[in-house]
Design brief:
The structure holds two protein chains of two kinds. By secondary structure, chain A is mainly beta. In chain A, 0% of the residues lie in helices and 56% in strands. In chain A, the strands form two sheets. In chain A, strands 2, 4, 5, 9, 10 and 11 form a six-stranded mixed sheet that branches. In chain A, strands 1-3-8-7-6 form a five-stranded antiparallel sheet, with no helix packed on it. Chain A is globular, with a radius of gyration of 13 Å. Chain A starts with a strand and ends with a strand. The model of chain A has no long low-confidence stretch (mean pLDDT 94). In chain B, strand 5 and strand 6 form a beta hairpin. The model of chain B has no long low-confidence stretch (mean pLDDT 94).
């Protein structure tokens, strides 16, 4: 089955800095890559996603890049703010099954 | 906007007891999922369902049973709870198999003592 590796497990940055979280996947058939943000005690919520026919996608301060050849995808957050502090999960999905395989998460801490 | 709701939010049960976690969604989404979340493991898929009366195993199905007699409900039963099943359980739903967003319930924190 699919395996998703996520790094780093924790990331501390100063407010205003950029943060990058990286994931790799194993199954070349995966074609959908969402990112979820989970605040403490809350449910995971989708923040951005990318499909395999796109190399990059941006939404304000958040961007995701995908390298299908290397089976890498990354989340980039610019101008970080304290409210960005949360656990971020990457995931991969094979279309025909619709199930998501998640990475183990990255705890992002943004210090004022 | 009820969306997807889980009950109970918190549950303490004893080893060996049967316990059922409920999940209800109001969107008529075809797909529903059960994940467990444990420190160091992220979110792992237990079972999923593509439609009423269609269910399939995920990564960690042992010790769990699901059913889906109605599109909107997807209960998860622990037949004989063990301490290793202490976890936070999340139900999720998505509209179709075409890689659409999965929406999560608020979670159930289950403690097996």
């Amino acid at each position: 089955g699919e395996n998703v590796e996520q790094h780093p497990s924790t990331l501390s940055v100063q407010e205003g800095d950029s943060a990058v979280i990286k994931c790799t996947y194993s199954d070349s058939a995966s074609n959908y890559f969402p990112w979820y943000k989970q605040e403490l005690g809350k449910r995971p919520q989708l923040i951005i996603d990318i499909r395999s026919n796109v190399g990059e996608k941006k939404d304000q301060r958040i961007a995701v890049t995908l390298n299908k050849t290397a089976k890498h995808f990354s989340l980039h957050i610019t101008e970080t703010q304290p409210e960005d502090s949360a656990v971020y999960f990457c995931a991969a999905s094979i279309k025909r099954y619709s199930t998501l395989t998640f990475g183990k998460g990255t705890m992002l801490l943004v210090s004022p | 906007d009820a969306g997807i709701t889980q009950s109970p939010r918190y549950k303490i049960t004893e080893t060996g007891r049967q316990v059922t976690l409920m999940c209800h969604q109001t969107w008529s989404h075809s797909y529903m999922f059960w994940y467990r979340q444990d420190l160091g493991h992220g979110l792992r898929l237990i079972y999923y369902s593509a439609a009423a009366d269609i269910t399939d195993k995920g990564e960690v199905p042992d010790g769990y049973v699901v059913s889906r007699s109605k599109t909107e409900n997807f209960p998860l039963t622990l037949e004989s709870a063990t301490r290793s099943q202490t976890s936070v359980y999340f139900c999720a739903s998505s509209a179709s198999s075409k890689n659409t967003e999965a929406f999560f319930g608020q979670g159930t924190r289950l403690t097996v003592v």
